[in-house]
Sequence to fold (500 residues):
Amino acid sequence: MIVPGNSSRPRRRIAGAGALLAVLSLSSLAFSARAGTVVVDGRFEDWEGVAAVIEPAPADSRAQGLVEGVWVASNADRLHLRLRLSREISLQGGNDRDGIVLYLDRDHDADTGLPVGAMGADFWWAFGRSEGRAYALGLPVRVGQGDVGLRRAPTVTAREFEISFDRRAPVLGEPFLPGSRIRIHVGEGAPLRPEGPPGAAPATPPTVVLDGAPPAPPEIADPAREDPSHVRVLSYNVRFDGLFDRPEPFRRILRAVDPDIVSFQEIYDHSAETVRALVAEILPETPWHAVRDRRSGVVASRFPIRASGSLGEAARGLWAVLETPAGEMVVLNPHPPCCGDDDGREEELDLMAAWIRDARAAGRVSPDTPLIIAGDLNLVGRSRQVATLLEGAIVDTATHGPPRPPDGDGTALADVVPHHLTGREVYTWRGDAGPFAPGRLDYIVYTDSVLGVGTRFVLSTPELPQDLLERLGLRAADTKEASDHLPVVADFYRRAASSR
Fold:
């Protein structure tokens, strides 16, 4: 949604336009931005060969600040940025104090927009506020993240981020970035703040020549199992009992995915037996079994469930021991609290890590027993929560005891990191109207000491070609209508002892 923003004098000279984070060592040059195969997934191998447009300030510079480097890549569809910072911060909303502000001169006209150095910034985006301003007729108009197709990764605190904007998104009746070149500047703190260190603003912010070539058509991955013996696991937050309140898209999705094990979240008002009966109706080829926790998590399985229980007295999650043809398998379905409740999320993750540690120490889960965690982890806060999930790095050791790597061989768990079938996105949740950009909140992680992974994907039906939708029995709107979370799928097989 675009609504009128707070008015300000558009040509008021701002000293630094907020505390500048970096000094341009090559400020008068133009940089070519070619996107290549950049995917916003929080990994940076695809940035190899892209030159920095903003480089670190010298160590003795008075302008030392938060930004250590900025890279830009583009194609006809998207503008990608890579930020490297001097300390770990969050790019989520509500962090104005450590906020990063991106300023763009989209029309390459110094006389339009907000003066930032020698450029006229006709667009700025404040990551700490999850909002921006686009200038029209000299006045700022509020822009939300959905208006510019914002993507960013990782969702947790970090020192390095990937960010992407939709160049074709309509902003004020025109494409967001229709031109062939822009000027760019990255600042810190609240936008429009007048104070800033002397010399913070570059005299001439760098010019970036945008690549206008369309990206190569996506190669749609095959969602089928690589081997019919592989065990397919689905993690799915169905959003407030949507499995029952909006059943039709879920029916089509479950039939298309055809899972063996489903880790459901947000089933509040229905029993495990009710879930079991519905899934068995949708997928009747084999018997189904189901257990639930005390809040909203359900594990449904084609395989018998030998035992189950809570991950802790106050935990919002459960464990289940399944009897598969290849032997026992342990599935954990966590759902820690979302958004700003970092402490509550860390408590839940600590409880889960302690449960795994204690189950292994007591012999309830042997080193050779496959263990899979599949759930909505809501990882939008401190990065150490990822370490707790994967490495068993308990934060509150006074309460929950010492850390221990959760795999049976004494190592960390492996993260499936599935992509959409198009290969161009990794987000599993999307809510454009809120403070959080689309992000990977739903995880499947596993003991790679005994398990291998085959097909893996995130299902987003609006992106799929019609022939594939028809082959799978899906409709383009299915995943959007079903939930704000997407189905996350991974196929597992037991690794041979010689390959471990």
